Amino acid sequence: MDNLELLSDYATFLREKKQEGKRIIAFISHDNIPEELLDAAGFIPLRLIFAGNDDLMDASHDYLPPSTCAFAQSCIGFFSIKPRQYEFLDLIDYFIISNHCVSDICASEIISKYFNIPSLKFYISYTKNKNSLKYFKLELMELKKQLEIINGNKIKDEVFIQSIKNYNSFKKKLLDFSFLNIKGTEKLKIIQSAMLYGPLFLPKLESYIQKHKENQIQKLTDLKDILITGGSIFINDYLIDLIEEGGGNIVFFDSWIGNNYYSQIFEDNIIDSIGNPYDLLVHRFKNNKFGDHSVPNFLENKISQIEKIYQDHLKKTGRKLGIINHIIKFCDHISIMSSHFKNGLQEKGIQVLNLERDYSRAIRGQLTTRIEAFLEMI
Hints:
- The protein is about 55% helix and about 15% strand.
- The protein is an alpha/beta fold.
- The protein folds into two domains: about 5-155, Rossmann fold, CATH 3.40.50; about 165-375, Rossmann fold.
- A four-stranded parallel β-sheet has the order 2-1-3-4. The chain has a four-stranded parallel β-sheet with strand order 6-5-7-8, sandwiched between helices.
- The longest helix is centred in the middle third of the chain and has 22 residues, at about 130-150.
């Protein structure tokens, strides 16, 4: 899926923000980085949501072994090779090192150290109990201090609350958009764009929803409905093209670039009743039980969530959902649970394809064969 125009426009946007005196904080995308706090401190959050290729993965091998997550390899490769359409990465001022996974830590530390980008630390607990919630709040307060030292200004609670409200309204609208009956490729492009720009994208999102409410696909009987979970489909990844060429249409994106991001919203009464912005983010962290780093019950929660989505879709449309569990090669925390995940859903009569791959172009044929065979079974 070609996104050269998106990357060009985003590069222009970042350069304009730098000219306005803004600073850019990058991070490897996952669902617990408090982008509202970064925004309230006056920074531009930059999610690394860009897919790799053979050259990018190879370029990382001076820093990490080839048996490392293909996405982490590619992130390092972007900074090593700096392809022309990604030259905006030179604009990054700070890099957040977090512990979403081992590869996240390693890649972030390597990018910070070897490409001379000052780092900030933000670590999270995988468990959800009283102590982990206290720890998460302490990490928020520590990140706040780091941001205030950089800027030389205090982050006011009222500014932070407003940022939370802005992101909340934006996510609600993005959730509304996700239910439009449009082709998966078109839907994914908008979701990816929205996650790069954040709430600034809201007017375009509202306009897009209004425009396409009357122009939705009426019937896609020749395409099989797909829910994709596991690893995200990042910008410039060819996987979604293979799925559509094989006869599938992704109607539900269940990953960081998708439902796991925009479903984490607050009801207005929650914002008003809790009040304290740090406690609000702790509340969201506590309720994020479908994220892939929520132990001990992540697998059971995820299976139950997907079963409900499957049954709701079947009841609404009369059509079955095929589940593709997208496993980026050497992504240990998804691959280690993949067989249990597949068995748990198949016991409920739900078809699942565990699709493990890296970003190599050489395996396109193999992927096509596996995807087409799976779609034939649905």
